[in-house]
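Good day; I would like, with your permission, to put a structural problem before you. A protein sequence and the C-alpha cells that stand for its backbone fold form the material at issue. Thank you for your consideration; the sequence and its C-alpha cells are set out here:
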Amino acid sequence: MHREPPPAAPPPAPASGPPRRVLVVEDDPTVAEVVTGYLSRAGYATEHVADGFAALDRAAAFRPHLVVLDLMLPGLDGLEVCRRLRRADDGPAVPVVMLTARGEEADRILGLELGADDYVTKPFSPRELVLRIGSVLRRAESPPPAAAPAPVLRAGDLTADPEGRRADRAGRELALTAREFDLLVFLMRHPGRVFSREELLHRVWGWEFGDLSTVTVHVRRLREKVESDPAAPRLVTTVWGAGYRFDPAPGSPGPEEVDEGCLP
C-alpha cells in the first residue's frame, strides 16, 4: 500500500444524515490502521476486525453499509466471508469492496462472481479506495429518479418489469441480483445497440472508473440465467472488438464470440 499524507480535503461520505458504517476486515494492522484512518477522516463510522469468523459476527451486530474485505484472512478467507454475506437473508446484500494482494485474474473474477461490488489490488492508494467506496455506496443508496411508470419490457419469452424489479422467461421468474437486473433492463431498453464495457460500467454501474472485469463477469452471469444456451448466446451477444448487444429477435444468430483475452 502506498504511504500518503492525509488528504487536505477527504472525499465526503456519500449521503447526509448519520455517518455510513464501514466494516474493515484486514489482518495486517498497518493496512487496517491507514484504511480506517482515511475512512474516518472522510466521515465514515468504521470498525475493524482481523479474521473471517469475526467479520461475520461483527457484520451481524454492526450492520455496516459496506464491507472492505481482504481476500487473505486467517480462520475464514475473504471469498468464503463474501459468499456467506451474500447468503444472508435478513435484508439487502451489503456492498463489498475486496482488497487483494493476488495478481491472478482468476482470484479477482471469483470475487466478483461471488458478489463483490469492486476490488482494489495491493499496493493501493488509500485515497482511491475512499473514492471507490463512495462510488459503490452512492450507487447502492441512490433512489431511482422520479419518472413516469416504466413499461414492461419484452423480447420473445423474456420479460422484465422495471417497476416491480422482476424478470421472467417462459413464465419462470429469474433469480437475478440487483446489478444483473439493472444490466438486463438497460440492454433491453436499447435493443440492437452495441455498448462497450466502459460505457456499461458508466451507465449501469454509475462509475467513472473501475475494473472492466466487473462488466465481463456480470454479462457472463446474466447469460447463464437468460440464455437457453449460455455457451452460444443469442440474446446478449458479443460484437467483436466493440462490446455487447441485446438482440431481441428470438432465434437470431449471435455474432462470433471472442476469446477470453478480450470479451467473453
User: Anything to note?
Assistant: The radius of gyration is 19 Å. The helical segments are 29-41, 52-62, 78-87, 105-113, 126-141, 178-189, 197-203, 213-226. Confidence is low (pLDDT under 50) at residues 5-9, 251-264.
